[in-house]
Amino acid sequence: MIPYSGYASGDHARVLGRVVLAPASVNPAARRGISGWRRLLTLESPGTEVSIKLGGTTTAVTSDEAGIIDARVTLDAALEPGTATALLSSEGRDQAPAEVHVVSPEPSTGVVCDIDDTAWVTGMSHPARAAWRTLRGSSSTRRMVPGMARLIHTAVEDQNGPGVVYLSNGPWNFVGPVTRFLERKGFPAGAVLMTDWGITPHRLFRDGQEHKSSSLARLLEDLPNVTWVLVGDDGEHDPALYQDLAETHPDRVAAIALRKVQPSGSTEENGSSETVNGVPVLRGSDGDVLLPLLRQALRDQPTTD
Description:
Layout: E1 2-9, E2 12-18, E3 20-21, E4 43-44, E5 49-54, E6 57-62, E7 68-74, E8 82-89, E9 96-102, E10 108-114, H1 127-136, H2 148-155, E11 164-171, H3 175-184, E12 191-195, H4 208-222, E13 226-233, H5 238-248, E14 253-259, E15 272-276, E16 279-284, H6 287-299
Parallel strand pairs: 1-9, 10-11, 10-13, 11-12, 13-14, 14-16
Antiparallel strand pairs: 1-2, 2-7, 3-4, 5-6, 5-8, 8-9, 15-16
């Protein structure tokens, strides 16, 4: 059982994990210091019954065709904002603790942050370079985009139990290196949502754009009291996805902050801003450039009684 980090608010929680087949002496979740490509060598266990214990509630679920557990758990009592632990277990195995980040049920500001070329440098605009970093590197070899950890902290400062979600098109096999990188570089703790790269009935690989779009829609539904700062980059689909959300749900988006992967002019030193349906859209070469723009955008947000 490989536990992943989830989130909760009010009377429900989203608990995540994966069931894989491995020798009894091996703990796949604890593997460190191995090349990225070796992390793809897993044998999933679909259709496995799993028990989830969280906050006095026990729920039975079944892993999907990729061995994934993605369960919406209805709680008997609300959890306190902060971090809780869900215990995942299957027959004949020890319980695996999964972190659940509990968001305050009160109105608050949260952050959704992309990983590739936003939190760390991947070089997605250069496919061969990006593949090399992914398949040969580890969390210790990754370079952080300057100022991004501070940017995320600023977005949720003074919040009680803020919602922080790291959203990536990368496969669940790499969630360990991603989580360790975020911890090592001082990013605020939060749920990490990745995807399965497995074959689907309609394509060889999962649709990354659809994964992010559906994940954002579910966050709006699961955490209705959170207004989001959406942080990403302009190298792939983030600008269109985030701006679509601003068009359809402007009351749920506090600001959009986009890192320009390839700065194109002298104005990049100070960044730039515009609005989409009343939502500030901020652009800059890194977190240090985006930070003063975000502070100003959040100060300008209307207050509610």
